[in-house]
Amino acid sequence: MFERLKWWLTRRSRESTMNDELEAHIACETEDQIARGLDPTAAREAALRAFGNRRQVMEDARQVWTWTLLEQFIQDCVYALRALRKNPALTLPVLLSLALGIGATAAVFSLVDSFLVRPISVPQTGRVVRIVAPTQSSPIGFLSYPEVDDIAKRTESFEGLVTFRNTGVRLDTGNGQARLALALSVNGAFFSTLHAEPSPGRGFLPSEDEVAGRDAVVVLSHGLWIREYGGRPDIVGKRLWLNAREFTIVGIAPKDFTGVETFVQPEIYVPRMMARALAGGATNSFLTDRSARITPALARLKPGVGIQQARDEMARIGSQLEQEHPETNRGYKLGVLSQLDYKITQSPDNVTMAAVFMGVAALVLGIACVNVINLVLSTMPARTGEMALKVALGASRSRLARQLLVESVLVSIGGSIGGLAIAMVCARLISSIRIASLLPLTLDTRVDYRVVMFGFATGIAAGILSGLIPAIRVWRGSVNLVLRTSDSRLGRSGRMWMRRGMVVAQMSLALVVLVMSGLFIQDMRLSRRMDPGFRVTNVVTAGFDPAGNGRDVAQTRGFYNELLEKVRAIPGVQAAGLSQHVPLGVSSSNADLLIDGYQPPDPRGGDASIQVSTATVSEGYLEALAIPIVRGRTFDVHDTNDSPKIAIINEAMAEKYWPTSDPIGSRIRLQGTDGGIAEIVGIARTSKYRELSEKPLPFLYLPQRQGSRSFMILFVATEGDPIESLPAIRRAAAEIDADVPLYDVRTMSDHFQQQALWGARLVANVMTAVAVVGLFLGALGLYGILAYSVSERTHEIGIRMAIGASKRDVLRMVLSQGIWLTAIGTAIGLTLMLALNGVTKQLVTAMNPLDPSLYAIVIGVLIAVTLFACYIPARRAATVDPNRALRSE
Amino acid sequence: MAQNSKNRVDLLQGTLDLLVLRSLLFGPLHGHGITKAIQRYSDDMLQVDHGSLYPALYRLEQKKWIVAKWEQSGKERPMKFYKLTAAGKKQLTVEQSKWEQLTRAIGLILSREIQ
After folding, report:
1. ipTM exceeding 0.85?
2. Which of A505, A717, A846, B34 is 20 to 30 A from A758 (CA-CA)?
């Protein structure tokens, strides 16, 4: 093995050495010819002629190098395959164990990959980085469009900059069935910078990135093209309607290119210049407003430019912008993050989750490996004869050890293939879960080449690891020892101890895996019952988007005013209000603001503004969700564009930014599009906004009547079943504007069960599956060792029975042996869990990580499985016929 | 080769290794030297084909019967010299006795046929 490696490493120098050698040969020959009287040129020609086909000579010589090595390797493989086929009782359980272990690991990896690791799928994706503007409250703050344009003009490190914003649009392909679709509004350099050039068709032109509202062009995603147009190639130049406005299709995005963010797979790409037109002209001057930091930005490094160089340059440009625009860019900073760093910074929780996932999967793989070691060891006595014979015939020990290794690597390749098949099924299951939300969001898990590489790498590592122990045994043992062990009781009992130790290890790992998954499942159960801080029962929601039907700002405002009025008049309706987001939904917004009199703890840490979560809501919303106002007042119908701007904050925000003074009456300065100075009029009770597990989150409510949003969700609280009031709500909407459809009609309790707990449920399901696999493998290991031990002890059991042991005694003896192993394993596992308590505490929200009932259940399951695994070997032991057992040896 | 002799014979399959080992018995030689040595000892009857000499050298080297070393040989050009190892010497005696047995056996058969 080592030789082969050395040969590979030195092949280049060998090659040149050979060349030199042959050249020297020809030179010698030439000199001989000169000595015979030929002139130098003729002499060399003669020498070359005599030498013959030099390339052929070199080729022949090269084959010598490769051949013996390759030959031996092939021989090893052939032997290994023969040995494996001859012993299916060993091979099949080993394959099964490895396939399950690798399957679990690869499936978990593909999941982690999909939400954390996998970069945007474009050529040389490692060169694509995030540009961020860190602020006081966010290390990954967004940029404003003018800033991105400035950077693009000045940079020498980047090929180009890319901006993108998600927006929901009403898509009508002309077949009469309009629906809501996810669009990405992007800048002109989007496709060219990412090297994701549309085909057929083209990406956006620089000219289409210049004038707002002029160029109504779209690029379709490959998926949409296939689904809606059957992949017709003549699609370029055809028309479709977005929010009732006509657009021309100019290209189809590449098949691999499914967007730039996790979960978000846009169906349509539109130029950012069209975003305003799509929103019914509602949104203001966000294209030119420096303080409107609303867009994430990506950039592609120029060839040869390192990320540090880019960071230095961005720091320079950041301070230039600060000097040029002191009014908007005070304390402004720019940073560059790799795609992975960005995701880690964005949600450190995901990293912890990924680590736990991978850790648990690794434990299961560990259990599988122990199984394999045990199984291989258990066949060693039977193989000592074969080994001894080989040694006697002149095989070196290293060759034998190598052959065992080759065997386990071959098996592990088989196991990897099986495991990847399992992972593929799992990935398909996970990605088929459509997150119950307005827009199609899915976790795009897939077994791509990286998962395949990962599967094979872990598989082969597992194979080598589990093949190593038997191989070392063979390496260490001399011929004599190998020949002797078949009747050496001592050697055997030593091996039994080792194998028992492994079963104990398996059981302790199984306990850890079970407790971990139990924690997640139980935590999800409890979370479901947790108080989110808002009303869940008897509330129904429905989305509206008048701009999607081409209504302008005034029409939209009129629509909502009338809608609220009519819905409140429906009998049984207690309260009705609008909000931009559903709490615990997939979408959320942030607001950048300055607070008069508030100094950030570290003024050098970036922009002086702070960032808080926000939602635009109408009067009646807080009432419909039963979120109480603890001080001050709520919004009412008189808070319109004609009255002074106001805002409501929650208790968490009041405590954080007004620790000593009264926030009511204070002023905040909102940055960006809907900017301006607003007065705080009320404080609402803190509820849950993004996740059930979140800590108290500072939150800002802005009045709907002072904004101009088109997409809003109606919340209606009713006395009885909210579904009963739905027809009346639909009727009310239709009376105002029959064209405006209701999107995503659901009750709050449905939303709470399905969407809010989507992540927790996925985690719980994955952990359950992994735990079941781990438990099964552990049981298999226990069964294997006990069955083996019974067959080894047949003779002894025969003697025991002959001198008076009853069947029950024998049964009890075998069972107690298994239970002892489980008991020790459980004790070690419990100690491990105690040691891990610090980590597990962070992972659960509603649950005591040392919950005694959970531990009781897990230990109960382990004992049940132990008894089950012991029963068959114990029965076999109890039915031993003393006569036959004593005669057999 | 210019002075192509008519009484040249082809090398028997498998004998090249033996000849190479034998020609190295008196001291290290480079590839060209081995060719010439074999040619000289056989009165120009045996001509070594370069296409099989170098593969044979590498094969012997890999079996650790000979070792190679780059050395300055009188002229400016460094040459790769092959030297017999202890294992190579042992192998030479094995091969030699095998060859002798074989030729004796063949000789016996052939002489019987004449009778």
Report:
1. no
2. A717
